[in-house]
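Worked Example 4.2. Consider the chain below.
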Amino acid sequence: MYPFKVPNLLVLKKIILILFVPLFIIAGVSFIYIIFNKAYFNTSCIIDTKLASEFENFFGGYVGVLLSILSTFLLIYTIIDQHIEKQKEWTTDKFYKMLEFHNNIVNQLSVSHIDTRKKERSNGRRAFVIFKIQIIHLLELIESLNTKEKWNLDKEQKLHIVYMIFYYGIDKKWVEFLQDKIKEDIDFNIILKGVEIIKKRRKFELGRTNQTSLSAYFRNMYNLIKLVDNDKYLSKEEKKSLITIYRAQLSNPELYVLFFNLRSYFGKKWNDNKYVERYEFLKNIPKDYCGGYNPEDYYKIEYDYNE
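Applying the procedure from the previous section yields the following C-alpha cells:
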C-alpha cells in the first residue's frame, strides 16, 4: 500500500505515552522531595559548598537523567507523530488523485441510446441514464420470459442473467462465455432463448456490451475504497469522511447501476469486505428506485429517505 514498509507506529506511540507519564511523575516527585528535604532547604544565608556540590551531583545524576530520558521519548514521539501524518497525507493525496481519475472516466463517457431511432449521444453522467434504461428493459424482458416460458427463476437468478447481458453484451461466443460466468444452476436452454429474443429486437440494442465503458470505472471505485479502508493510520472517522466525499460524487443513475453491479457476481469482493455497509455507500439512493429490488433487503444502512 505504501511506497515502503513501516513498523506499527501507532502501537509504539501508545507505548511511549504510557512510559512518558510515570517518568514525568517520578521526576516531579523527586524534585519536590529535594526542595522540602531539610538537608537541602534552609533559610540560612551561608552556602554550604559541600552540600551544594552533593546537590549538583544528585540533581545532574538522577533528575537530569530522568529529564534526558523524557526529552528522548518526546523526540521519538514527535518523529513518530510526524511520520504518521506523512502516511495519512500520502493516502489522502492518492485518494484525491483517484477521485480525479473517477471524474475523468465519467466525463469521457459517450454512449448512444439503446433505442436505435434516437441518434443523439449521451455524454458524461448522462450515460448512466442510458445504462439504467438498458437494465430496466432487460429486467422487463427476462421477467416476461420467466413467466411465459415457466422458467421459475428466482430474483437473484434473473438479476445475474440481466447484469451479465448488460455488462458483457451478446456476440457469437456469448452463450458459452455467460454459462461459464454464471456459477449457479441455470438451464442452458434459458440462456439460448434469452439470447435469440434479444437478437430479434432490433429496435433496441439490449445486447450491446458496456464493459469497455464501465470496467475501469468500477475497478477504480473498488481500489479507491480499498485504499482508504486498508490504511492503518487513518481513524474510522477520517475514513468515513473521505468515502463520504467520494459518495457525494455519485448521481442517482450511477447508484442504480452500482446496486446491480454489487448484487451480481462482480460484487463479491465488495460484499465479502462489507464496504457497502461500513461506508453506507448506497445511503443516498432514492426509495423504490431499483424497481422490484430493494437495497434495504441486502444492506443494513441508514438510508436518507428513512431519516
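The mean pLDDT is 82. DSSP finds eleven helices and two strands in the chain. Compare this with Example 4.1 before moving on.
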